Amino acid sequence: MKVPPSHPRFRSLTVRETLVSDVEKGIVHLSGMIAHGRGEAFDYMLGERTLGPALAAIEAASAALCIASKPVLSVNGNVASLAPKEMIALARAANAKLEVNLFHRTEERVRAIEGRFRSLGAEILTSGDARIPGIDHSRGVCSKDGIYSADVVLVPLEDGDRTEALKRFGKFVITIDLNPLSRTARAANVTIVDELTRAVPLLAKRVGSLVGRRRTCERILSTYDNEKVLADMLKHVKRRLEELTHGGST
């Protein structure tokens, strides 16, 4: 469906149509549509904008990626559909590898996502020759040269059990999650409570400005408090809901 630019929800509807199209192409699983809708609901409560606590998390995430020796960016179907160019730009800025990771993993979906990235001039790991300890389903499948040996892993739009397993496996985990109450958000070292296509370009830009500034990165990480960031996000949601309840429009 062609969405007219004059529609008040043009961007939101365009994103939905992109996901629908990529379901048909085998990149997005049907359950990814449910996950997207849930995230969009949280974005309404945030006011559909990048907030101060999210910027603080982006700062810390950028610092962690800059000082990592083996950073890896995990890609699922929704990420491949909504932000492939942005993820490629971030990978190049951070000198990080990209890797496919799917809950509903089939060879066809892996090849479809790989094709999407290759068409944009980027390589993405797909081998599945290793496994994250403690995960029995397909999310545990990973590449030995990628997530298995990484020190810092970005897992946007993630499942909580893999985030927890990656932490137990000794990884520094960064996530992008619009739900500040999710298991993923609570378990990650750094949680960016923001919409994917807003957050990733900001990450790439900040990484670019922090490359080679190790002391600055270490100082940023030493003062970062993920629990406070999540608490501040919840306070914002509470304030905004109270204002809307009393007729405000902020």
Describe what you observe in this structure.
Strand 5 (152-154), helix 7 (160-168) and strand 6 (172-176) form a beta-alpha-beta unit. The chain has 250 residues and is of the alpha/beta class. Helix 1 (10-24) runs antiparallel to helix 2 (30-46), helix 3 packs across helix 10 and helix 5 packs parallel to helix 9. The strands form two sheets. A five-stranded parallel beta sheet has the order 2-1-5-6-7, sandwiched between helices. It has a two-stranded antiparallel sheet with strand order 3-4. The longest helix is centred in the last third of the chain and has 20 residues, at 226-245. It is built from eleven helices and seven strands. It is globular.
Shape assignment? globular
CATH class reads Alpha Beta
Order of adjacent strands in the largest pleated sheet: 2-1-5-6-7
What order do the SSEs take from the amino end to the carboxyl end, as H and E? HHHEHHEHEEEHEHEHHH
**What's the number of structural domains?**
1
Helix content: 40-55%
If you compute it from the alpha carbons, what radius of gyration comes out, rounded to the nearest whole angstrom?
Answer: 18 Å
What is the CATH third-level topology name? Answer: Rossmann fold
Largest pleated sheet: 5 strands, parallel
Query: Structural class of the secondary structure composition?
Result: alpha/beta
Which consecutive residue ranges, at least 5 long each, have pLDDT under 50?
Answer: none
